[in-house]
Amino acid sequence: MVANQPTSANFEKTFLDLPWQDVLWKQVLPYLSIKDLFSLRLVNSHCKRLAEGYFSSLKQLDISTVSDQITLTAFNIIIENTQNLTSLNLKNCTQCACEDTLVYLIERNPRLSKVSFKNCNALSDCVLLTLSTTCLHLTHLNLSHCTWLHNVGLVTIAFKCHSLKYLNINSCFNITDESIRILVFNCHKLTTLKFSGVYNITDYSIEMVSKACPELVHLDIQGCYRLTEACVKFIMTYCKSLQVLKAKNCQHISERCLLGLDESISVDVLHETLSRKKIPRITDQI
After folding, report:
1. Is residue 283 part of a domain?
2. Which of 11, 39, 93, 251 could form a disulfide with 67 if both were Cys (CB 3.0 to 4.6 A apart)?
């Protein structure tokens, strides 16, 4: 027999003979789409165990790319044994993001630090209560276009999640100054705060944000029509770390007023970032 000649047993080996945890789960399956993973799961019982074992090992789960296709049954299969998630993106998942399922998922994954429920309209503040009491190390939370969000939900996050750095509550129009005040006095580490289209926000909120969040880098106040130029003075005085300010459609704030901000701040007011070369600075005319 020729040396190193493959035996008949060698020809029977398949990719399933590769180490699952160190090779297949880490180096192969991450390149498959969720649709491909479910197709693999249907091949045979071994592939079914392989796929489900991979789901249980996930640290990051993003189903936003298949949000219009995935069913509640499929979602339950994915999350059934997950206990290691640190990141969860359910953007636009209206079919599978039901309240009971998410409460179950959150309770089993206390290490979650980044969560997006953007445009998940079938939820309630109850989910945030579970999130705040379970995931105490939460740093990123996206609730954009979650019209169900009320002050009570935001306050529960504020009281428990003191490590929060990123918060997006764009178009959550039920939020008022009071919950923003409680938020910033409990979450001093905020670097990004977005509440465009939150119509109840007034200059008082901006004053509280400016004074309580010294590390703020990005602030989005687009469409907050109750804001006046008084809020710009608070930003100018206290937001020394600010790099980006989005202020489109703030009808009571003029471009001339925004020119008083430090030149290091990128100010987005119209279709383009405001150029301080086009209009003389206020201080230049005094």
Report:
1. no
2. 93
Q: What is the pTM of this model?
A: 0.87
Task: Give CA 5 to chain center in angstroms.
Answer: 55
How far apart CA 155 and CA 129 sit, in angstroms, is 9
The residue type found at 267 is V
Identify the residue whose tokens are 């580490």: 189
Task: List the structure tokens of 93.
Answer: 């998942």
Q: What is the mean pLDDT of the chain?
A: 89
Instruction: Examine residue 220 and state whether it is found in any structural domain, yes or no.
Output: yes
- Do 123 and 95 contact (CB within 8 A), yes or no? no
Q: Give the residue with greater pLDDT, 246 vs 96.
A: 246
Burial of 108 (0-12, 13-18, 19+ CB in 10 A): middle
- Residue type for 95, please? Q
Q: CATH code at 190? A: 3.80.10.10
pLDDT digits (tens, 9 = 90+) for 169-201: 999 999 999 999 999 999 999 999 999 999 999
DSSP for 95-115, written as a single string: TT--HHHHHHHHHH-TT--EE
Q: How many domains does the chain have?
A: 2
